[in-house]
Predict the structure.
Amino acid sequence: TWGNSSLFLLHLSALMAGTKRSADESALVVAKRGRGLDDSDVSSSKALTVLPQLQRTSTLEAPTMLLTGHGGAVYAVDFSPDGASLASCSHDREIFLWRTSGNCKNYCVLGGHTSAVLDVRYVGDGLQLASCSADKSCGLWDLERGERVRRFREHTEIVNSIAVSKSSAATLASASDDSCVKLWDLRAKASSATVLSTAPVVSVALSADAGTVFYGDAHGVITAYDVRGGAVAYKLAKHSEPVTGLALSHSGTHLVSNGMDGVVLIFDVRPFAPPERCVAELAGATHNFEASVIRTAWSPDDQRVGSGSADACVYVWDALTKRTLYKLPGHSGTVLAVAFHPREPVIASCGSDGKVYLGEISPS
């Protein structure tokens, strides 16, 4: 059974441009796990007025929300295209769907994978969700019905990461320890292409038209593969350890990577970019002996980059100046992934502590 939700004051500092947010300026709301699609099954949180208040910039009930209920590490989070929902996936083999306004109710739990769910991505208009798992499969979920409608089972090892194209005919890319990247037409059962790597593939990103797939491997190499031409376009060998996170900017011009070497890099991936494609190295985020898969993300306007970190903080940088804008504490373990709200100045994070946070940041 699950106890009643409670509201606590958040005594955390949030750094932006060297300034601290006082403990009085934030509130922390704990939302609990729901039981299905019916909101009546889900608890609510009481509002607490905390004075003085900062000028609010989102529809969250409080400037910082803590969402609990997962029974293990939470590996990834993703906002729906309209920003109304957040998906999280966990070692507990379940996917949670949360409201992203008010008290952030957990309104659906998706189960079906037989091992840890390692990544989730909304598909198309947000009525479907893709997932991948340590059970060696990927899944496609119908969110109106709350059930899995397709299972992709061609990989022979753990599937570490997925990416979804933004084109009308959605394509899924999956990266696996079997040293393969597979491309899937989500309307078909079999993969449409298989890209062979020389090492286990940890991370993957896909261009909007699914014409180029980027994948990072356990040797620290990022490969850009031309899907239509069926050949490697180029390789980026700047990391010395596995590449755990890849994210393509919304404009499609730049790629951010996170490596177990403790380096976050930005690359210019435009077709006719100079040979030296690495344009920025972002300092602060770390890895440790846990060798966690830590993911990265871009803000909707591509002005900011976010990443998790082994020091239990969320890092946000200015993508142009490389300045650290935020170092956000709160988690009690490695922060494994971050995501930016598509319409509001809100960032989501999840970690090995089993927690999901939603927090307001300043508008770009």
